[in-house]
Structure formats: C-alpha cells, structure tokens
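Table S2 (text version). Query chain:
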Amino acid sequence: MGREYRENVSGTVIVKAVGGDLRLRGREDSLLILDGDGGAIEQLGEGQPYVVKCDGDCRIMAPSDVSVSVQQVGGDAKITDLEGPLEVNQVGGSLTVRNVAAVQVRNVGGDLRIKWAEGDVKIENVGADATIREVEGSVRVGRIGADLFLRNIDGNCVVEQVGADLLLSIDFLPGNEYRFRAGGDILCRVQPDSNVRFVLPPDVSVGLDVEAEVIEEDDNGRQIVTLGDGSATIYIDDAVELRLVGEGEDYMLNLGIQIEEELEARMSMLEEKLSQQLDGLDERIRSKAEQWVAQAERMSGRAQRQAERTTERLRRTMERKKDKRKGRPGAWHVHWGTPPPPPRPHPRPDPVTEQERLMILQMVQEGKITIEEAERLLAALEP
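Corresponding structure-token output:
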C-alpha cells in the first residue's frame, strides 16, 4: 500500500474518485496523507484545491479545518472529525459521518448514519435505512428508501418522503418547522410536559400511549392531536399510523442506542490508537499495521451492525405487542415478555498469526507501543 502526502494544506480537499472503500479522518495539523494502492494527490495550482484519487480502498487524513468535497466512492465511506463544511456527492455503498460541522449528502446507495453534527444537515436520497442523531442545526431530507430514525435535532426538521417507518425522538420547539411524510408508521416519543400539536390527514390512524386531546376533524378536514398548550406544530403529510409514546416505552430504544454507542466508542478508540502508530513507521511495518487498522474497522462495523440489529429487534417487539392488542399488522408498542430472536451468525475473524505477534513484540521493543497497548491489541485481534 503506497503513501502520498502534502504539507501546509489549506483551502479545499476534493476526493474526486475512490474505486473501493474510503476512510477519511480529520487531523489537527496541516498534513494531507493518502494511504492506498493507485492513489495520487494533485494541487490544481497555487492557492487552488487539492484533488485526491485512488483506484481501490484508501485512507485519507486531512486537516480538520479544511472544506472537504467527496465526489464519488464505489464502496462504503466513513468520514469523521471535520470542522469545515462537508459535501458528499455519490457513495455506492453505505455512508457513516460522525463529529462534523455542516453536511450535505446527495446520493447514498446503502445505509446512512450521521451523528454529532454542529451545523445543518441536508440529505437528498438514501437507498436503504438512515439514522440522523445529535444535530445542532436543522435537518432536511428528500427521500429515504426504507426506515429513518431522527433523534435530538435542535433546528427545523423536514422529511419529504420515507419509504417505510419513521421513528422520532425530538424535543419539539415552538418556532421551528416540522413536517414529515412516511409510507409506513410514525412512532414519536413525547415528553410528559410536551406542548405540541400534530396536524395530520383524516385517514391516518392515531394511537396514543400518552394523554392528549384529539379533534377528529377541524375546519380543513384534518385531525388535530394536542398535548399541553400545543405551542409547537408538527405536520404529518402522510402515514399509515401516528403513535405517540412516553419515555416509559421509549427507554428500550434508548437502551439499544446506549449499547451501540458504547461498542462503537470502544472500537473507535482502538482504531484511533492503531492509526496513530502508522506515522513514523517504515514501509514494511506500516503495511502490517494498516492491516490491523483495517481489521479493527471491520470489528467496529460488526459491533455497529450488531447494535443496529438489537435496536431493530426492539422495534419489532414493539410492533408485535400492538399487533396482539389491536389485531392488525403495521403497528407499534412495546412487548415486554417476548424474547428477541437470536442474532444471525457472522464469520469469525482470522486468528492472530505468529508473524503478527512478533510484529507487535517488535513494536513494543522499539518503544512504539506500551506493553498494555500490545495486550489490548492482541486481545482485540483474537477471534
């Protein structure tokens, strides 16, 4: 795996084309580093953007304060720790974005995950599921092919179309714009002291697990569901059912989210530690260390997918409970007594080879990592 780098980088970094998977992380200095086979960095001119291309999988580390534009990625993409604006045009697989500022995403073929964004988030099209959480700005979504989960959005929140179900865990604020359209059900968590008013078409079913005032038809032929003084207005343009639940039923989803965050945080720490070891190593050892980083990322992905499956099982459990109570499909509620189905088996990672053990011992001997770090690394790489 070859390495290219440029010093004193500022302005804009354009990732023009990546044939495989992309891992892009911000760093605190002014270095732009590319690790990948068939990769190249070119500056268009003095004071002009830097253009990065790679034929296969690649890892890019860029100054965290620059603007980043990702034009095309053939596989999956993971982008983290950027303080400047981020624009993603096309990702063929799944996209994960974490700890960034403003984000604009045009097309994602697989799943989308965005967490901890300090600016506005704009999404045009996602082929599968999407999760958007912890956003300090506004969120505007064009189309989601399957399910969408929104949590802790501080600003306006407008979703034009969700193909399946929509989960909302938002503290609705007066003055903000909220508008949603879903092809399936909408499950919404509301606080006990919420002051919200839901406006929805007359053919949308309403399920309440909280106290609310319901007007089945107003002067415009719409249903109105009001909690408290109704100072925040939420428009539901279309859905099969709107179900409002309190914190008591939402805590199971919170539990799934906490499990996911803990697993992801642990694997991210390991990935970060291994990435730091790449700088300053000779080519032979760096190549082996990059393999360990890639394996750590695969483990992180498996942990993330397992947590997502846990949350999905909780959601399905809620559906089964309401199915039993109301006798019809496509509904939501918590089913406390039903155990979740067993997780699907996943391939075990390859065991650590003797050569890899010797490499780790060599890094300890050279003072590049401590004994404790080596033990944690070996434990993490074991099946």
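Notes on Table S2: The mean pLDDT is 80. The first strand starts at residue 3 and ends at 6.
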